[in-house]
Amino acid sequence: MSEVLFYHLEKKSLDDVLPELIERTLARNWRALVRTESAERAQALDNLLWTWSEESFLPHAQAGDGDPLKQPVLITVEEGNLNRADVLFLVGGRTPQSWDGETANFTRIVVVFDGRDEQALPGVRAAWTAARQSGHETTYWRQSAGGRWEKQA
Predict the structure, then answer these.
(1) How many beta carbons lie within 10 A of that of residue 125, not counting itself?
(2) Beta strands 137-143; 108-114: pairing state
(3) What is the structure's pLDDT at 53?
(4) What's the rounded Cα separation, in Å, for the pair 43 and 53?
(5) Structural domain boundaries of the chain?
(6) pTM (2 decimals)?
(7) How, if at all, do strands 3-9 and 137-143 pair?
(8) The listed CATH number (1.50.10.20, 3.30.428.10, 3.40.50.10110, 2.60.120.970) that belongs to domain 3-151
(9) Residue 16: strand, helix, or coil
(10) Helix (H, G, I), strand (E, B) or coil at 99
(11) pLDDT digit string (tens) for 35-69?
(12) Secondary structure (DSSP) of 69-92
């Protein structure tokens, strides 16, 4: 089973948080797959990762840009583990088609969601329930008033 982390954004945006999480993933010598809901979001994340920090380089590509197996970070809207990633980041309301199927191919699954988006919350709650019912070790992280991540459940 995979470890599943739910990150509840309240103080910071996805653009503020995702690069830091990816940087930590790469520091562990893990590969990352970022799955999003649209090609537009994939393009925006691609641009973000290129310009995120002058002190840090996050090597990445979008699906369709060369050989996915050569990419330590791959951004996609497609299903499947195209770059044999250790960590799957789900953003923009994406959840796995099944918590029993492809999720076994990942060491960790990170669901990043905006707590201010009332339309997204029912889907996230359903994903939490489904992940737990499938036997995954799930944790819920919320931003403190100071912006630090605190484990809630």
Answers:
(1) 12
(2) unpaired
(3) 86
(4) 18
(5) 3-151
(6) 0.95
(7) parallel
(8) 3.40.50.10110
(9) helix
(10) coil
(11) 999 999 999 999 999 998 888 889 999 999 989 99
(12) GG-SEEEESSSS-TT--SEEEE-T
